[in-house]
Amino acid sequence: MSLLVLTGVESFYRASQALFGVSLAIEDGEVVALMGRNGMGKTTTINSILGLVRPRAGSIRFAGRELAGLRPHSIARLGLGLVPEGRRCFPNLTVEENLLVAARGNEWTLERVTELFPRLGERRSQYANTLSGGEQQMLAIGRALMTNPRLLILDEATEGLAPVIRQDIWAAIRKLKAAGQSILVVDKTLSELLPVADRCFVLEKGATVFAGAPEALTPELQDRYLGV
Ligand SMILES: Nc1ncnc2c1ncn2[C@@H]1O[C@H](COP(=O)(O)OP(=O)(O)OP(=O)(O)O)[C@@H](O)[C@H]1O
């Protein structure tokens, strides 16, 4: 059984339709890339999975369960861990407190997160608002992992960060993949994303227009669907 399956999802913001038929599937342990130019519906797809936007048509099944009608907190509890665009941590809690308040389950611990991101270990008693942008992003990923998600969702996790920090984050994503973590990634850095992805889905105007292995996403297709 697939971990996550979207079939013909249509979502709206009030009267304005944003998704016109998004279909995608993620198997357990896969890293899946969700791609497309700005405004094509990637974040709306993620919001639809999480129940933050209610689809009006189509189906979203997570671990065999239809998510339609469930509230966002119930959906999150089924095992979805989001790292949102623009990293949200508690500014007035320390790194350690930020991680501990997110903890649910016992596979991911403070120790494991700080092993993945040693910088967080070095700064464990620092307040989150004193961290650099990259460190806050690592903390946001650490917080999502502390919930022990069956599926980790990264929405533009490397956007706007210094190159050396982006490399740390990609290295962490590769380690998570090697550990068998299922991940849905939205990111514009194709040179990092394509080698780590098992499968890619490309959205155009709110619909899935490509589904396949990263090797099948030829330079021509990249140009057609992702070029500026
Ligand atoms: N809160 C909102 N209210 C109304 N329309 C919205 C809202 N959020 C997004 N949209 C519209 O929905 C469509 C899809 O946007 P979405 O943010 O999902 O795209 P995206 O692929 O994630 O783009 P980006 O890379 O810019 O984040 C766009 O036409 C956008 O203008």
Set down the secondary structure blueprint:
Blueprint (H helix, E strand, L loop, with lengths): L3 E10 L2 E11 L4 E5 L6 H8 L7 E6 L2 E2 L5 H6 L2 E4 L11 H8 L7 H7 L1 H5 L10 H14 L4 E5 L7 H16 L3 E5 L3 H7 L2 E6 L2 E6 L6 H8 L2
Parallel strand pairs: 3-8, 3-9, 6-7, 7-8
Antiparallel strand pairs: 1-2, 1-4, 4-5, 9-10
Helix pairs in contact: 3-6
The site of adenosine-5'-triphosphate has 11 residues, from strand 2 and helix 1.
Q: Report the CATH C-level class of the domain at 1-79 and 151-160 and 183-228.
A: Alpha Beta
Ligands, deduplicated:
adenosine-5'-triphosphate
Query: What share of residues is helical?
Result: 25-40%
Q: Outline, from the CA principal axes?
A: globular
The helix tally amounts to: 9
Content of β-strand: 25-35%
Q: What is the assigned CATH homologous superfamily of the domain at 1-79 and 151-160 and 183-228?
A: P-loop containing nucleotide triphosphate hydrolases
Structural class based on helices, strands and sheet pairing: alpha/beta
- Kindly identify the CATH topology of the domain at 1-79 and 151-160 and 183-228: Rossmann fold
CATH architecture of the domain at 1-79 and 151-160 and 183-228: 3-Layer(aba) Sandwich
End-to-end Cα distance, whole Å, is: 37 Å
Integer average pLDDT: 94
Domain ABC transporter: 4-228
GO molecular function: ATP binding; ATP hydrolysis activity; branched-chain amino acid transmembrane transporter activity
Family: Belongs to the ABC transporter superfamily.
Protein name: ABC transporter ATP-binding protein
